[in-house]
Specification:
Length: 226
């Protein structure tokens, strides 16, 4: 029979996250892998004419056929807070002297409120993730062991190797996105920190962090020991 230990197990949620660091516009993971994130625009496919839809399908197929590396597509949906917009519309309604316009603004405000009541207003953002595998670091990087994951090499070395591998892939992908009418942009260190901070600490509006340079803050807050 196993006797319970008198010493409580203590660990923070932070210790279970796979992210080791965010620097030089890359996400560095504890196993020595890294990732580059590109935020991209979207196209309302349903509003396009039939010829435009066919052209877009062929362009997208060309993009997929041009890839010689794995690509992950991530879609983040977040409920939008439009309370400030409703307040602005209400203020315009109150100060409007023309009764006809005032009535139209009132109807518009009620229409927006009815949409919010019946359906959630969601904001969607689209990301493309290009990964750098620890296999590219060699045998030591691929087979690092231990109870706690440790980087197989110094951060500077891993980041340097990751840039050499990821940047040509990034440039190729951005060119292909441009050909199908989409805009793509690599997230920088500040944007990556804010993205992951808000993923692990969700709020209605999201939080803007202070300048990340020379600044350290855990990705998960409000958690104690377990």
């Amino acid at each position: 029979m196993v006797q319970p230990t008198s010493t409580p197990i203590r660990a923070t949620t932070q210790e279970f996250l796979e992210i080791e660091d965010i620097l030089d516009d890359l996400v560095l993971l504890r196993d020595g892998s890294a990732a580059l994130l590109i935020i991209t625009s979207a196209v309302n496919f349903g509003l396009l004419a039939e010829e435009e839809q066919e052209a877009l399908i062929y362009a997208y197929a060309s993009l997929l056929n041009s890839l010689s590396f794995p690509l992950q597509v991530v879609i983040l949906s977040k409920r939008m807070d439009i309370s400030s917009y409703i307040e602005l519309v209400t203020q315009e309604e109150e100060k409007q002297q023309n009764q006809t316009l005032k009535e139209r603004i009132r109807r518009y405000r009620e229409f927006i409120l009815s949409i919010i009541k019946e359906n959630r207003v969601l904001e969607k953002k689209f990301y493309l993730v290009i990964s750098f595998s620890p296999l590219e670091l060699g045998v030591k990087g691929a087979f690092s062991t231990g109870k706690k994951k440790r980087l197989p090499f110094p951060k500077d070395y891993i980041i340097s190797r990751a840039k050499t591998s990821l940047f040509p892939k990034r440039d190729h992908l951005l060119r292909q996105l441009g050909r199908i009418g989409l805009k793509g942009k690599q997230l920088n260190t500040q944007e990556l920190a804010e993205l992951f901070y808000n993923i692990y600490n969700p709020t209605t509006t999201g939080e803007k962090l202070a300048e990340t340079k020379g600044y350290s803050k855990t990705l998960v807050e409000g958690v104690g020991k377990i």
